[in-house]
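Hey, resending since the last one bounced:
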Amino acid sequence: MVTENAIKEATKEQLLIVALGPDNDLQIRYAVVRELQRRRWTTSMVTDFVRYYPRLLPVEIATKLGTTIQMVNEQAERLGLKQYFERREAL
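The structure tokens again:
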């Protein structure tokens, strides 16, 4: 049985395998697709993220964008801002 926690911790590749697997239960496939959509950042989310990062901590940004701290940190890393967060959290 695939749990909600397992879905949230799975990699994108693992989620795609489950979503596209024709032998998987339809409810599980829908849950996996919802998780993939949740992880996808829209252009407006990236814009808001860049606007928020100088003023807010990752937890505050995650709350405002309706995502997880992990997703905020991953986005910061993609945009080259991760070091800034690490310095701010150390203060």
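Helices lie at 4-9, 12-20, 26-39, 43-52, 58-65, 69-78, 82-90.

Sorry for the duplicate.
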